[in-house]
Design a protein that fits this description.
It contains three helices and five strands; from the N terminus they run αβββααββ. The chain has about 110 residues and is of the alpha+beta class. It has a five-stranded antiparallel β-sheet, with helices on one face. The protein binds guanosine-5'-monophosphate and zinc ion. The site of zinc ion has 6 residues, from helix 1.
């Protein structure tokens, strides 16, 4: 657990979250400030700063993608977008890697 990491605290149960999926490796919960009608964050339970660090652990990488698929199944989504913001200039604000899972209305492409 990384000190002062908000997602590590959610994983540890020290902060509340609206959990939609939970397994040994992954937790998925509703974003506090949703940017779409459905906005779920899928995080590995172990702390990795970003997708580049996560990629060094193939099992954890696969677990995050499987977690996305599990949430998609649970919520019955058939069209959705996944986003990994990486670095401050790309909009990353929480430095514990997370997939944004967005759905619920047409999403424009490319994003602004
Ligand atoms: P990033 O900007 O790093 O790609 O995404 C971080 C996301 O985490 C943001 O969409 C933000 O709304 C969400 N977030 C930040 N703090 C919390 C929190 O304490 N609980 C939840 N559920 N989401 C959070
Ligand atoms: Zn963390």
């Amino acid at each position: 657990m990384a000190e002062d990491c908000v997602f590590c605290k959610i994983v540890a149960g020290e902060l509340p979250a609206s959990v939609v999926y939970d397994d040994a490796d992954v937790l998925a919960f509703a974003d506090l400030d949703p940017k779409a009608p459905t906005h779920i964050l899928v995080v590995p339970k172990r702390h990795y700063v970003d997708i580049s660090e996560l990629a060094g652990d193939r099992d954890a990488s696969a677990a995050v993608l499987a977690g996305v698929a599990a949430v998609v199944r649970t919520l019955g989504l058939n069209s959705y977008r996944t986003v990994f913001n990486t670095g401050v200039e790309a909009g990353q604000t929480v430095f514990h890697v997370h997939a944004h899972l967005l759905a619920g209305r047409p999403l424009t492409w490319p994003p602004g």
